[in-house]
Design a protein that fits this description.
The protein has a 5-stranded mixed β-sheet, with helices on one face. It has a 4-stranded mixed β-sheet with strand order 6-7-8-9. The chain has a two-stranded antiparallel sheet with strand order 4-5. It has a single domain, classed as Metallo-dependent phosphatases (Purple Acid Phosphatase, chain A, domain 2). The radius of gyration is 18 Å and the shape is globular. The protein has 7 helices and 11 strands. The protein is an alpha/beta fold and 238 residues long.
């Protein structure tokens, strides 16, 4: 029977990701891997995470990859950098780049051994531009951050899919499916509760992989959608 694994925010933790997939999940090429975004920033090895995901794609694993707010941050910062103009010999400042660097982009730049954002390799930017905003399955909707149920059609608000932190689910708007997302780190105890309590209309799988100094956090989680069993890989990158 095919397995369907959902993996949330990786945040530059390449060793942890590889261990989760190769030692715990051990997927066959008949299985499915769903990634919820935020592959980069904060952790030490963003380039290695992207390279590994691209490798799995080349090896023809069944994969669906969502866009996270950190990938959007990088792409838009890169585009802003390309469009900067000089006024009286002074180059404009890229405010978005400054924000992105502060929120983990600095580690991504170091991972790529870059000091100038304009030199960011185009193949990675193009890869991020092709990432999806959501995945609809029979019983679940997968999204990076969540959905805006105040909108007539929650699937039209792409900004909320990447950035929303609090939302009240109206099940009828998504055919009574459960939402699975990341973006907001929660404890392992809460993850376990939300997985096994069918009264919860959402499952937040983000355990803050990079938050190794906080009790109950600092792991990378993968949830199998048929059995509702999950695997926990402690952080190997810090």
């Amino acid at each position: 029977m095919r397995e369907h694994w959902v993996i949330p925010d990786i945040h530059g933790c390449a060793k942890t990701l590889r261990a989760l997939i190769e030692d715990l999940i051990k997927p066959s090429k008949h299985d499915w891997l769903y990634f919820l975004g935020d592959y980069i920033d904060r952790g030490p090895s963003s380039k290695e995470v992207l390279d590994y995901l691209m490798y799995l794609q080349r090896e023809d694993y069944n994969m669906r990859l969502l866009l996270g707010n950190h990938e959007e941050y990088l792409v838009k910062s890169f585009e802003d950098e390309q469009n900067l103009k000089s006024v009286l010999g002074f180059k404009q400042k890229n405010k978005r780049k400054k924000e992105w660097l502060f929120h983990g982009g600095k580690q991504t730049m170091e991972s790529f051994q870059l000091t100038d954002l304009i030199q960011f390799p185009a193949e990675y930017i193009d890869w991020m531009r092709k990432l999806e905003y959501f995945v609809e399955l029979d019983d679940f909707v997968l999204v990076h951050a969540g959905l805006n149920f105040r909108a007539d059609d929650p699937f039209k608000d792409k900004d909320s899919m990447l950035w929303i932190r609090d939302f009240d689910i109206i099940p009828e708007k998504i055919n009574n499916r459960r939402v699975i997302h990341g973006h907001v780190p929660v404890s392992l105890e809460f993850i376990d509760l939300s997985i096994h309590n069918k009264g919860y209309k959402f499952i937040d799988l983000d355990n803050g992989c990079y938050m190794t100094k906080r009790e109950g956090f600092g792991n990378l989680v993968a949830l199998e959608l048929k059995s509702m069993e999950y695997k926990v890989q402690y952080n190997l990158d810090f």
